[in-house]
Amino acid sequence: MLDCLSFLTAAICHDLGHDGYTNGFHVNAVTPRAIDSNDVSVQEHYHAAELFRILTKKQNNFVEDLSKDEYKIFRKRIIGLIMATDMSHHAEAVSKINGTVSEFDISDGKNVEKLTEGQNESELFKTQQFIMETALHCCDISQQTREFGIAKEWTYLLFEEFFMQGDLEL
Phi then psi for 4, rounded to 5 degrees? Predict the structure, then answer.
């Protein structure tokens, strides 16, 4: 249940407060977001931090009944999940997925159970985190898999963001 709550919360909030600019733009412009994140996964650090700032307000804290240990897991999961949406890690993520699929001979739904066989609690946490991060990253970049009209609309919205950013960079 806690993993599901973590995943859904991260999915909903992974672009919380996104300002329409890339991480690279923030780094090059030395914006407050870049400074706060030390130029690393600028937007993703902002989204995660903003979520937890919101949760500090009593009226927004829907996880207040979690134990201290559950809250630590919830927070760790969410931060990792949101960081996994940083496109600068895409090639590394694909390589890791391909390596995992190859290592365990996963194909057509077979051998998936091998992912967790013989793992201790710490290893199991990491494997579960990897699976959730992969799923969220796939969802985040899935616009091209939608019906053409919707994919086209999202593409033009992205173009608009990039052109606005380009105008500022001139």
Answer: -65, -45
Stretch (H or E) spanning 37: helix 32-37
With a CB cutoff of 8 Å and minimum separation 6, the contacts of 84 are: 93, 133, 134, 136, 137
Residue 170 has what pLDDT? 61
CA 2/CA 109 separation, integer angstroms: 25
Q: What is the C-alpha to C-alpha distance for residues 38 and 67, in angstroms, rounded to an integer?
A: 31
Distances (CA, A) of 74 to 8, 81, 85, 145, 153: 11, 11, 17, 30, 34
Rounded to whole angstroms, the Cα distance separating 116 from 49 reads 31
Q: Tell me how far the alpha carbon of residue 38 is from its chain's centroid.
A: 18
Q: What's the predicted TM-score (pTM) here?
A: 0.88
**What six digits make up the tokens of 52?**
């937890």
What pLDDT sits at residue 91? 94
> Model confidence over 120-147: pLDDT tens digits?
999 999 999 999 999 999 999 887 788 9
Q: How many CB atoms lie within 10 A of CB 168?
A: 9
**What pLDDT is attached to residue 166?**
82
